[in-house]
Amino acid sequence: MSLKIGRNEPCWCGSGRKYKTCHEMFDEKIAWLKSQGHKVPSRTIIKTPEQIAGIRESAKINIAVLDYVSQHIRAGMSTEEIDRMVYEKTTAMGGIPAPLNYEGFPKSVCTSVNDQVCHGIPSEADILKDGDIINVDVSTNRNGYYSDSSRMFLIGEVSEEKRRLVQVTKECVEIGLKEVKPWGFLGDMGQAVHDHAYENGYTVVREIGGHGIGLEFHEEPWVGYNSKRGHEMVMAPGMIFTIEPMVNMGGAAIYVDSDNDWTVYTQDGMPSAQWEIQVLVTDDGAEIISY
Ligand code: MF3
Ligand code: CO
Questions:
Q1: pTM exceeds 0.85 for this model
Q2: What is the DSSP code string of 181-209?
Q3: Model pLDDT, residue 5
């Protein structure tokens, strides 16, 4: 049985427009790409205008929290203090920190220092010191809509080689973003990120990637950076996902802390950097939702 929408009936996307002037061509394009063997997004991850508006409101908090952290972060501060700032600012603005109790995560934010790749757990015992690089990964739930982005911070005087790692990782995200456009492939973005890192002598973590996001913290698709141009899921207008490569100064190998089952470290103890943006695929390109 198939439920074909009448061409004059309201579109499934909730725009209020007739199907024939809204998503009919979209559906035909998706069906054709699927018939050609491509991975295509399911309708459930295509956001409606109303959902996009809600996600933007969530992202306003997420961005404000990161701005707040950037104004206060300094040497001598514990990562627990960053956690407190994130909790206070998020809740004061009407949001809930999405990491808190997410699959048992004990804190409101991930703080990953130097050779910590991601999922660092804030602690009173971890004091930021001169020369550290840290990723602060903030995620917000507001009215059931999710946002997620992360930034790197340089603490005091940071060595030239660590600065360069942080800078190149940021460039990776920006170069990847340029590849986000409707009817391209996630592999276009992934390969661009990968190539820029490797051209600079770095490696990219293979096992952990970005993700669809919006109505849930983590949705389809999984977004890797060891993918190839012309491969992986087709990008369609209304999709929202993160670009968040973890770039290592040394080898790509990682391990998970067996004491907390969360924190990921580089195998060789070399530094790792990560920036994360949340992007919306639009009708003619991409729009940053959270940075
Ligand atoms: N913010 C992380 C991401 O980019 C999620 C961390 S999972 C958590 O997907 F439980 F630690 F929050
Ligand atoms: Co994320």
A1: yes
A2: -TT-BHHHHHHHHHHHHHHTT-EE-SS--
A3: 79
